[in-house]
Amino acid sequence: MITFKNVSKRYPDGYVALNNVDLTVEPGEMVFLTGHSGAGKSTLLKLIAAIERPTSGTITISGQNIAQLKPSAIPYMRRKIGFIFQDHKLLFDRNVFDNVLLPLQISNFDNNTVAARVRAALDKVGLLKKEKAMPIALSGGERQRLCIARAVVHRPAILIADEPTGNLDVEYARDIMTMFTSFNQVGVTVLIATHDASLLEDTQHRILSLKQGKLAA
Amino acid sequence: MIRAWLTQHGFVFFLTLKRLISTPVTSLLSIIVMGIALSLPAGIYVLMQNLQAISGQTADSPQMSLFLKLDTTQDSIEKVNQRLEENPQIQTVQFIPKDVALQQLQQSTGLTDITASLMRNPLPDAFVIHTQENSTEALEQLRTVIQSWPEIEHVQFDSAWIERLNALLDLARFAVLMLATLLSIAIIAIMFNTIRLQILTKRDEIEISKLIGATDSFIQRPFLYFGALQGLAGGATAWLIMALAIRTLNEELTTLAQLYRIDLQLQHLSSADSISLLLFSAWLGWLGARISVASHLWQIEPK
Ligand SMILES: Nc1ncnc2c1ncn2[C@@H]1O[C@H](COP(=O)(O)OP(=O)(O)O)[C@@H](O)[C@H]1O
Ligand SMILES: [Mg+2]
Questions:
Q1: Of all helices (H) and strands (E), which one includes residue A59?
Q2: What is the ipTM of this complex?
Q3: Which strands, in side-by-side order, build the sheet including B63-68?
Q4: Model confidence over B135-168: pLDDT tens digits?
């Protein structure tokens, strides 16, 4: 599903955030990406969604070489991915429902089914009763769940989450991990970056560990 | 597929309307500014069209008056008449005997007393002809020919004022073109700036949309609709401004017309010209938005 071959990323200021990374994530797999702050986790995820381009190496997503995509093809590639951003990237001038609606509007979904899809996604994350609320009125945990609803509403094959339990209480964090597990159980490939080691204590899923831009065994 | 496309565009259309209405004062002010800017060249154009209609009526078949020498005999008059009738350049020939001319003078000026006290009729016999062509050279040539006939005292034709009018119309046409060009650039600049500000305030929305897979055309569409819609509204405003101005002017002209017994009413743009005005103004708005979008959107790259 996701393959990195000899991928390096050097930022314009000369800093090498990823150094010769090789990795494979199988379809339907759930994988954790750990490492200290600054290890390069966010950079790796951004490369998958073509938010950053690699300096060298090849990245393949469902058989497509990301580095060779034309700029006009990138939006269509991004629609195959549900991305949960570290800084949320919610729209604060529209309510919960409209935030989740955005990916469907972008992908030109049929107007008759969008409302049902939005509500289904909100239901999965337990926000159905808050569809009219503005994001500013939500708690931290609720905002995180809103991000998840927006990431899955168009039913992507790949779900990518960058620090999804960032500043949350342990209990909230467990709730959210359960949600990811249930998405994975219906066949979604899930890749989660986290520096929170407590999340990984009793997981049976594969853990990839980044240290200063290099993947440890 | 087509239905999805239509609903998508319908959706953006209503979103744009909502955007226009959500900032009523700003939108209204921009629309009025655009309307005034457009009404200037369009107004001159309307005046020009009206003037051209008037000059067209008279210029269609130019009139020439030939005054005969006072002592011309009936025989010579016949000969002149025949020569005129045979000339292919001349469309109609009308003879006005000096008695008739005097009567007309008395009637039209009301100077019956003075003319009645004259010992003899001071007016010459005359012909009034309408020519086939109306180019100045052809008329001049004809005038020279007729002037050379021995019976003819004087040939007069009224091309001078038509020439002046045509020159004036040419000037007006040039003015319209120049004004239209300058004000179009101004409108594009206004729209450029309006859209630039909109893009700035929607920075987050644009960035997030790009991140979750929006194409460039999806992101551009609302701005282009906005430009076109506001341009259209500006064009409609210009049309209304002119309609109002023409109504006011026509009221004045009615008074004038009663005084001078001439029938002169200004006409608004023809429906074809009106549609052109609306399409053109919509296009201007769209173009301003297009340039603005092209020069600002690429700067917003998600990180
Ligand atoms: N746009 C950027 N320009 C320069 N350096 C960057 C940029 N983004 C991240 N970095 C650097 O790359 C390193 C890895 O960052 P990141 O991928 O965000 O790590 P993590 O998510 O594991 O905390 C950090 O040292 C960070 O300062
Ligand atoms: Mg990070």
A1: strand A56-61
A2: 0.93
A3: B90-96, B126-131, B63-68, B152-157
A4: 777 778 888 888 888 888 888 876 666 677 778 8
Task: Report the C-alpha gap between A47 and A26 in whole angstroms.
Answer: 17
> pLDDT per residue over A81-117, tens digit each?
999 999 999 999 999 999 999 999 998 887 788 999 9
B243: part of which helix (H) or strand (E)? helix B216-260
State which of A15, A51, A87 you would mutate to test the pocket of ligand 1, scoring each by most atoms of that ligand within 8 A of its C-beta. Answer: A15
Q: Is the CB of A15 under 6 A from ligand 1?
A: yes
| Cβ of A11 below 6 Å from ligand 1 | yes
Residue B71 CA, chain-centre distance (Å), reads 49
Across the interface, whether the CB atoms of A49 and B211 are under 8 A apart is answered: yes
Tell which CATH classification among 3.40.50.10320, 3.20.20.150, 3.40.50.300, 3.30.70.3040 matches the domain B63-132.
3.30.70.3040
Beginning with the edge strand found earlier in the chain, give each strand of the sheet holding A81-84 in spatial order. A81-84, A158-162, A189-193, A30-34, A206-211, A214-216
User: Can you give the pTM of this predicted structure?
Assistant: 0.76
**Nearest-5° angle of CA B245, CA B248, CA B252?**
135
Tokens 């004809």, located at residue: B142
Could you give the residue range(s) of every CATH 3.30.70.3040 domain in chain B?
63-132
> Where exactly are the structural domains of chain A?
89-155
